[in-house]
Design brief:
Blueprint lengths: L20 E3 H23 L5 H20 L5 E3 H21 L6 H27 L25 H17 L2 H28 L18
Antiparallel strand pairs: 1-2
Helix pairs in contact: 1-2, 1-3, 2-3, 2-4, 2-5, 4-5, 5-6
Organism: Fragilariopsis cylindrus CCMP1102
Subcellular location: Membrane
GO molecular function: oxidoreductase activity, acting on the CH-CH group of donors
Length: 223
């Protein structure tokens, strides 16, 4: 999906004005806000017995909205129809998980799922913070990329994706529903591919000292 550093630019389009683009912050809000609204409506108003998984879904997307508004620094643009496609997908995912998740689960599953969700969410937030430190004041249109450092960036190209998958695994365990596990499989396949392309991009952008060729894509020491 052409967003973030994979989004088309005027330079990649030979100086031509790009159509159907929106500022990256607007694009990210289009991606996350509809799912947040869906989870909010189902959990607070629609369902007589809201599920624990539904609450985690609401917290997940509310966190992403807060990061877009308060943490991330943007300088580029996002393809509008890509943002709409992803936003629609997340909206459907949030709706299905709120409706279909089991409301009665064992204490063990509840504790394990919430523990993984907590670790995943905090780890994701921390590595998003590390990425934000690389963007300077975010007020310039000049994109000067720096190699990410610290945390699990010393081992993999996309540790924020790794922790995001931990959070989705936690949601699936708490959900105890096939829909949630199929969503986890979908997320895993997509983020495995995106982390591979990110690692490939970094190897071309930085020298061996800045970005060792031995660095993995997503899972430390394995992939």
């Amino acid at each position: 999906m052409p967003y973030s550093k994979f989004a088309p630019t005027s330079a990649s389009s030979k100086g031509k004005k790009l159509e159907g683009m929106v500022p990256s912050k607007i694009g990210m809000l289009i991606i996350y806000v509809p799912a947040t609204i869906a989870a909010f409506i189902f959990q607070f108003f629609y369902l007589s017995t809201p599920s624990a998984a539904g609450w985690l879904v609401f917290i997940h997307f509310l966190k992403r909205d807060a990061e877009v508004l308060l943490l991330h620094k943007y300088s580029g643009e996002t393809v509008l129809n890509v943002a709409q496609i992803i936003g629609t997908s997340y909206f459907i995912t949030a709706t299905m998980l709120c409706i279909a998740s089991n409301t009665e689960i064992s204490i063990l599953d509840s504790k394990l799922g919430m523990f993984l969700f907590g670790i995943g969410s905090l780890g994701n937030l921390y590595h998003h913070y590390l990425l934000t430190l690389l963007r300077g004041d975010g007020k310039t249109n000049t994109k000067k990329y720096q190699a990410p450092k610290h945390g699990l960036f010393e081992y993999v190209a996309s540790p924020h994706y790794f922790f995001e998958l931990l959070a989705w695994l936690g949601i699936a365990i708490v959900s105890q529903q096939l829909t949630a596990y199929l969503n986890l499989v979908s997320m895993t396949l997509y983020l495995c591919a995106r982390s591979y392309k990110s690692n490939e991009w970094n190897r071309k952008k930085f020298n061996e000292k800045e970005w060792p060729s031995s660095r993995k894509n997503l899972i430390p020491f394995l992939y």
